[in-house]
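Troubleshooting entry. The earlier prediction with fe (ii) ion gave an output that would not parse, so I re-checked the input for stray whitespace and re-submitted. Clean input:
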Amino acid sequence: MYTLQPRVCISSSRSSISPKAARLSHQKASTGKPYFREIQEHLSSKLGEASNAMNSTYQQLLDSFVDHTFTFKCQPLRPTESNFAPVDEIGEITRVIEIEGEIPADFPEGVYIRNGGNPLYGALQSVSSIFGQSHNIWVEGEGMLHAVYFCKSNNSTWSISYNNRYVQSETFRIEKERQKPCFLPMTDGNPPAMLIASVLNTVWCLLLLLHRISSVIFLGLSQTFWKCYMLTVEFVQLRFRKVMKSMSNTSVFEHAGRVYAASEDDVPHEVDLHNLSTLGSWHLGGEWKLPFTAHPKVIPGSKEMVIFGINAVQPFLTVGIISEDGEKLKQKVGLKLDRCTYCHEIGVTGTYNIIIDSPLTLNPTRMLRGAPVLEFEEESYSRIGVMPHYGDADSNHSAHSILSIASRKVMSKGISCTKFCDYGSKAEEHARPKFIGFAKLCLEEKQNIATKIDREDLIKVEYHQLAKNQFCSGVTFVPKAAGAHEDDGWIVSFVHDEETNISKVHIIDARNFESEPIAKIILPQRVPYGLHGAFITKRT
Ligand SMILES: [Fe+2]
């Protein structure tokens, strides 16, 4: 039987030969089987070292190839897009000293936090090469959180402070470490350039397939052989093992006392609300490996959270339920849809999930014919599906649960987009929309317009429009504790004035929606336009 005793004796001797060689020599003399095992371990160790060295060399060669073949260039912004330009991290929580108006005494203590793209290295990137051009699209800037802290001192006076920080995803850290943009844009551009960019960013999926097939073939063979196989796999791994960067730039949400930044290209990243540092990815014990919606919903009354993720291959849409404590994935079901609809939102009632199957679809094979991966299929259908929270794969497909939308034309009854959104002039094609105000829909009240018969059924809409050259982002509703009405509370939003280049947070009384804000908090630095905001109330 193999024992540790001979090893101890030999390793403590002062022989002129190396301890390892002496050990091998001794074991050869004592028994053949341990000697063989030792040879295996030695070989494995050497193979591991060789693998690391080769992998490193290989990656360096690839990086060198990318550096010499592709030219990165910052995408310019139009004059009307000046507040989409990124800002630096302010570095520390900074006290706000100027407030116009007064923050109400019954406004809750907490943090108003908003996510948004803030491209690293100055701007979104385009690359050109012999394969053509590819570039980032406007939703691809790295996520940056902007937080405004509402705290009360002992004498009940408000103390307001501000901080901002990048969400530090794995890919953010890679580019930060290398001090330059490294991921090749692959979302839009010339098809060959997009394809090559995807391949050079990763071949991880192919490797996974190779890995799985080989696991079956090689299972049970010797450790040395297995190491040889792993060496081969390591050798062919390309640069980042990810098709594109993890942005984490779309939303912020809270579940079970933890706060997460999310976007649809990765799982959420947990953040520490105190200093906005990134604590890690939320993989739910490895059970959710798909993208994760930026808009999960808590089931009314249960506190469980409904999530979903889309995938370019079947099942195209997977729905899950996370436990109340955020520790377990209690439900995961792939729905039987026949296309990858770009599902951004889900409706959740006390009993059902409401699924939107729209003709905005994702299909990577379109790249081969030069069409965009994400496309609105003009002639295709739209459906709304209803499924029980714990339904199976067929739930969303049963005849009674699908409402087909016969007409693709959706009438925006009673609401005028031009009153709260500026899409830019026609000369500025593809200009990013900017929001000039807010709309409040009073669903149980009718609009007081009697001039046209066909408008009698319109619901009441109120507008809060900002002053000229002011635009907002990240609006959210902060409910009043123990409010008597559904709209008892406040609307809070980041507002930027392009004339003065000053950013503020506006607080509007939701019941006096069209009136002037009751308070404007003047921020210590510019806050670029972003995406979704949330108010995280302080726990008592
Ligand atoms: Fe959204």
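This one parsed fine. The pocket of fe (ii) ion is lined by residues 294-295, 344, 532 (CB under 6 Å).
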